[in-house]
Each structure stands twice: as structure tokens, then as C-alpha cells.
Automatic annotation (TrEMBL):
Segments traversing the membrane: none
PANTHER family per UniProt: METHYLTRANSFERASE LIKE 7A, METHYLTRANSFERASE LIKE 7B
The organism's place on the tree of life at top rank: Bacteria
Keyword Calcium tagged: no
Occurrences of domain Methyltransferase type (ranges): 38-132
Key word Ribosomal protein present: no
Protein keywords: Methyltransferase, Transferase
A single MF term (Gene Ontology): S-adenosylmethionine-dependent methyltransferase activity
Protein name stated in the entry: SAM-dependent methyltransferase
GO biological-process terms attached to the record: methylation
Length: 207
């Protein structure tokens, strides 16, 4: 990783992901989490204030050392124990059936092999465990003009934002990995250009 990826990008992501408009979405995606939770793409901890009372602990998977340091204040203020215990969502260092639930927010767009990451999440979830997800990706099929812009902008977006794709279909990726979607809301983020803000928020059940 170069200077930009190590020292600059985590600060950009910290600012971009910390906008006030995202807080209601974070609250929605965290609602209903219970027990021992693994959060992939923990980032700088913007979900921490929204962990519900049913959560007993969170294991954070985050590759960026600077990102983890920037999360320090939020982690220290957390109402539940939060520990960093993984660097790569594609290869989780945990036993099978370790967690009650999983959380992923705006993460699948960037992981190089998102399918492998989802299979890993499924592996470490207990049978019947739930993945709570909030992901941006390919716009709905009826919005062909938005999709065209996503394909045009994706190469630049990937260079600027650490490999962030605009055209991945998160719901299709989840079902391909064996998850069953149990709740889903597809929408555009308010105040975000449509090519960057086509979101899918919901829950998916592990076999």
C-alpha cells in the first residue's frame, strides 16, 4: 500500500462516512443486531454509536491501521466491548460458527473478492445467523441512464477511493453466496449523486 492508501484515504473515508445524513441509515442497519457480532470493513467506527442493547460484543475486521486509530474515540465510548481481530474480510481468522450476527456497511464495493468475503462471513456465522447489510452498487435495472454513468465513472472512482466499485450488485452477490434475503430496501441516498448512492439495506440469513 502506498502513501495515499495508507495515510490519506482513511481520512477521506472517515470524513465521507461520517456525514450526518448517513446516521439514520446506520441506525436502521444496526437495528436488531444481537449477541456476538463480527463487523467487516469496520472503517473508523461510525456504526459504534448505533449498536443496540442486544449486542454483547463486536469483533472488528479492518485492514487500515490508521482507520483503526481514527476509530479510537468511538471505540472507547462504546457501550459494548469492541476489539480488532482481523485485517482481511476474505480470510477471517475465526472458527466456524463463531458469531451470532454480522454487519457490513459500504464494504462489499471495495473488497477485491467480495464473494470470498461473503463465504467467509457465512462460515463464521452460527447456523441461522443474520448478516445486516447496507451497500451501494449497481442502480436498479429500470434506471439505465444511471447505470451507464456508473460504468463511465467506475474507473476513476476505483482509483480515488481504494478500489470502490459502483457496479457491483450486492443483493445478487449475497444470494450467490448462499444467503437468503429476509428484508430489503433499495433506494437512492438523499444528497448523494445517484451513480454513487444506489443503496441496498436489509438482512440476510445464513444457512
Amino acid at each position: 500500500m502506498g502513501f495515499y492508501a495508507e495515510r490519506v484515504l482513511p481520512r477521506i473515508i472517515n470524513a465521507a462516512c461520517g456525514v450526518k445524513a448517513a446516521q439514520p441509515l446506520r441506525q436502521r442497519v444496526c437495528a436488531g443486531l444481537t449477541g456476538d457480532v463480527v463487523e467487516i470493513g469496520f472503517g473508523t467506527g461510525h456504526n459504534v454509536p448505533f449498536y443496540p442493547a442486544g449486542v454483547t460484543g463486536v469483533t472488528a475486521v479492518e485492514p487500515s491501521d490508521l482507520g483503526w486509530r481514527l476509530a479510537g474515540e468511538r471505540v472507547r465510548a462504546a457501550s459494548v466491548p469492541v476489539r480488532r481481530a482481523g485485517l482481511d474480510g476474505q480470510s477471517l481468522p475465526f472458527e466456524d460458527d463463531s458469531f451470532d450476527a454480522a454487519l457490513s456497511t459500504w464494504t462489499l464495493c471495495t473488497i477485491p473478492d467480495a464473494g470470498a468475503a461473503l463465504r467467509e462471513v457465512q462460515r463464521v456465522l452460527k447456523p441461522g445467523g443474520t448478516l445486516h447489510f447496507l451497500e451501494h452498487g449497481l442502480a436498479p435495472a429500470e434506471d439505465e441512464n444511471v447505470r451507464r454513468w456508473q460504468h463511465r465513472l467506475e474507473p476513476v472512482n476505483k482509483r480515488l477511493f481504494g478500489g470502490c466499485h459502483l457496479t457491483r450488485p450486492p443483493v445478487d452477490m449475497l444470494t450467490a453466496a448462499g444467503f437468503t434475503i429476509t428484508a430489503l430496501d433499495v433506494f437512492y441516498e438523499e444528497g448523494t449523486p445517484k451513480p454513487m448512492g444506489a443503496d441496498s439495506l436489509g438482512t440476510a440469513l445464513s444457512p
